[in-house]
Amino acid sequence: MSGLLQATPIFMNIKLWERMAEVHIIGELVGANGFPSGSLSCKWGLTLGSAWKVLEGLQEGQTQVDHPQDGSFAKWSHPINIHLACKGLQGWPKLHFQVLHEDFFGRQELYGYGFCHVPTVPGIHNLECVTWKPIGTFKEQFIGFFLGGNPELKDETSIYTTQDRQNLRTEAMGNVSLRLGIILRNFDKFGVEVS
Fold first, then answer.
1. Residues ≥6 apart with Cβ < 8 Å to 12
2. 134 in a domain, yes or no?
3. Tens-place pLDDT, residues 93-147
4. Which residue from 191, 176, 150 is spatially nearest to 44, judged by alpha carbons?
5. The domain that contains 31 carries what CATH number?
6. Which domain holds residue 34?
7. Is residue 8 domain-resident?
8. d(CA 117, CA 133)
9. All residues at 6 or more sequence positions from 167 whose CB lies less than 8 Å from its CB, including other chains
10. pLDDT tens, residue by residue, 43-57
11. Neighbours of 69 (CB within 10 A)
């Protein structure tokens, strides 16, 4: 009897979110190019507004390190499969990235930050997300040249928000390639046209 009572609130919660608009993101982090050297991996995450809820799937992850033979394109083919429900459009999902380089000794250093909005139109989308890294002061650059490492953000929300980003000195880096399939459901019930 107690098992039935525990299952009831979960069942009611699922039913509530079933009546909401839904977004299903199915795709992959294909890889990266345009970085100074190979041996790259990528940490990624999904940022949502307060009106959004993850129904299924992981909201963050990390790829393997790829050591491309020609050094030009790091291939990850890392899957992304996230099912979301929303009560409103504010806080539309964004994917954010940290591209890391692994050196000869296995140390990882930051090569770039980037983010992109999840497309609002259903279908298959090939995206190129540009990345950047903070360059720091002359002293930090000098130390980084001889000892390795790059300046990193204290607060990672600066990757995908404009708060405090205008004060950063940055350098353009390479691109992260994504292939995303977007499925939208029940948006028409709430008066939102998608095409």
1. none
2. yes
3. 999 999 999 888 788 888 999 999 999 999 999 999 999 888 877 777 777 666 6
4. 176
5. 2.60.40.150
6. 21-190
7. no
8. 19
9. none
10. 999 999 999 999 999
11. 6
